[in-house]
């Protein structure tokens, strides 16, 4: 393992956490790293990778033990996703929902029946979950959401639509944010669970992204679900927003993994490439760029670990998750840009990894709440 991964931390991991991280690193390097460009270019969901993660216990690491998982914390999830992001962005994004907010929201807020029905299948790699929030006129402005849920006897009727939904091509279960009344603002917003083959529910065509995965639109035309499929209703928005604090930490951990992977590639390249009669690694300008990368990566890792570790079995705080996400997302962009510069002209070629990492890093600030939105939240906490 690279010495940068095991550099001195503000606090140490437990032996079990070191083992989880080592297993994740080994699985990712041996099985995903050499094929990461293939997954990006094909656009196919990496089912084989997900099944392998399930077999090794990594996919269900944060699912409660009574439902077939490892019972791990947000920190264990962050450790795993950093190593996946370090080797293969597409696989990290494919596993994010199973380790992240979809399953954690069900585990925290779901009924016993919902947990028994879905979580063991997720841990086994048999069920992919997708979360859907964004609408054409409601991105960061969640209060503008229009997808509605109306009670009708023992059922709830869903109407509306969503955009930018990842993994909709393979998901069997969708965690969908909906509005339970016409009251303005975010108070009436909650979430429901919609299974893939529910009548009236359709999925639009794929829209390919720079990172290789595809996004989809969802349409709900008088979709009827049993009331037992309501995940949260009362005070639902606050509760689901709290769950998303964990997702922000995991988004940030993937950014850190991408930056670390780019740094690893740059260090190796600088040692072998010669210019001006000596290795790139012997030029002070290159050394300083690598050193700046290392400073920022280690700082970001500490912010994510702190936010995740302090969750104490619940969810990370909004402020700490926001700080970790802003710094990690923007750090990854700076690091991957420097790495491409270190590769020089070769960095502009697709066969070299530098451009790949730069593309992957660009997603972080777009998903899970932009840095601008996170800064608003941080400022509100400071000025409260």
Structure description:
The chain is an alpha+beta fold and 384 residues long. The protein contains 12 helices and 11 strands. Strands 2, 3, 6, 7 and 8 form a 5-stranded antiparallel sheet that branches. A hairpin with a 2-residue loop joins strand 2 and strand 3 (155-166). The longest helix has 37 residues, at 236-272. The model is unreliable at 1-9 (pLDDT under 50).
Inertia-based shape: globular
Please report the first level of CATH classification, the CATH class of the largest domain. Answer: Mainly Alpha
- Provide the CATH topology of the largest domain: Butyryl-CoA Dehydrogenase, subunit A, domain 3
- Taken as a percent bin, the fraction of beta residues is 15-25%
Number of helices: 12
Write a short abstract of this structure.
The protein has helices at residues 15-31, 36-42, 47-55, 74-87, 89-99, 101-109, 112-123, 236-272, 284-309, 318-343, 354-361, 371-383, and strands at residues 129-132, 148-152, 155-166, 173-179, 189-195, 201-203, 207-208, 214-226, 230-232, 274-275, 278-279.
Please supply descriptive tags for the structure shown above.
Butyryl-CoA Dehydrogenase, subunit A, domain 3; disordered N terminus; 384 residues; 3 domains; Butyryl-Coa Dehydrogenase, subunit A, domain 1; Butyryl-CoA Dehydrogenase, subunit A, domain 2; alpha+beta; 49% helix
Give the SSE map.
Blueprint: H1 15-31, H2 36-42, H3 47-55, H4 74-87, H5 89-99, H6 101-109, H7 112-123, E1 129-132, E2 148-152, E3 155-166, E4 173-179, E5 189-195, E6 201-203, E7 207-208, E8 214-226, E9 230-232, H8 236-272, E10 274-275, E11 278-279, H9 284-309, H10 318-343, H11 354-361, H12 371-383
Parallel strand pairs: 1-4
Antiparallel strand pairs: 2-3, 3-8, 4-5, 5-9, 6-8, 7-8, 10-11
